[in-house]
Design goal:
Strand order of the largest sheet: 7-8-9-10-11-1-2-3-4-5-6-12
Largest sheet: 12 strands, mixed
CATH topology: outer membrane lipoprotein receptor (LolB), chain A
Strand content: 35-45%
Number of helices: 5
Distance between the termini: 110 Å
CATH superfamily: Lipoprotein localisation LolA/LolB/LppX
Helix content: 10-25%
Length: about 240
């Protein structure tokens, strides 16, 4: 007698089961494929602006309310930032007071209300614990201390400032609120920034309104000291 081997029965999936499994696999695959990878800070916030001048006006929010920021930047040589027509900050890499150290700047923080011109070099600021840097002040973005994760993300399309575009990045520092910035590498500034609230909402904290890339007159970066009291903070730091 010939023995015929038994065939193992395979569990039968009906059409509904096959559809469920297909949707599950599709969901898992999509979630894996869409999960963005973190990038290096310098890679995300690249500066492709070169030495081209830039002048822009922006609105920003902080705990004290709404403010206006106007900035003029001439490459790595000159910077001016005016806040609410009350504080005028200048950074100059060519000023004679500069000590000669690499990447040193003369900083002038002019209090327009009190009519005081506070002057200090980058080198002296390091000794006094001040955290100004030309990059962070001129690019309106400061790298948080400690471990920071930067991830490409989606965000609302910011109002097109003079036709410029930008790419959103989420900035997640350890132990601090998550923020996101829509970075324009061509201008080397964020066109918009948002902070995430405790309930998960995103609040806009910075928006560029106008941009001008015409050459900037040298006079824009010169502080008129005729009505100002000048304080040399480098000398005060040495005396301490």
């Amino acid at each position: 007698m010939m023995l015929i081997p038994c065939q193992q029965r395979v569990p039968h999936l009906n059409q509904l089961d096959r559809l469920k499994w297909g949707l599950l696999l599709l969901t898992l695959t999509s979630a894996t494929a869409q999960q963005p990878k973190s990038v290096d800070w310098d890679e995300a916030f690249a500066d492709h602006s070169g030495t081209a001048p830039i002048h822009f006006v922006a609105q920003y929010q902080d705990a004290r309310g709404s403010h206006q920021l106007e900035e003029w930047r001439d490459g790595l040589a000159h910077l001016r930032r005016r806040t609410d027509n009350r504080i005028d900050l200048h950074a100059d890499a060519t000023a004679k007071i500069v000590t000669g150290f690499p990447a040193d700047y003369l900083w002038q923080v002019v209090d327009l209300d009190k009519k005081i011109d506070n002057r200090i070099s980058s080198t002296a600021m390091l000794h006094t614990g001040m955290l100004y840097s030309y990059w962070s002040m001129s690019h309106v973005l400061t790298r948080p201390p400690g471990q920071v994760t930067v991830t490409p993300t989606d965000g609302p399309a910011p109002a097109q400032a003079s036709g410029q575009s930008c790419v959103w990045f989420e900035i997640a520092p350890d132990g601090r609120p998550t923020t996101r910035a829509c970075w324009s590498s061509a201008l080397a500034i964020p066109l918009a920034m948002q902070t995430q609230t405790r309930d998960g909402r995103w609040e806009t904290t910075f928006t560029v309104q106008t941009i001008d890339r015409k050459p900037i007159s040298r006079a824009v970066f010169i502080v008129d000291t005729r009505t100002l009291q000048v304080r040399n903070l480098d000398q005060l730091a040495e005396d301490d």
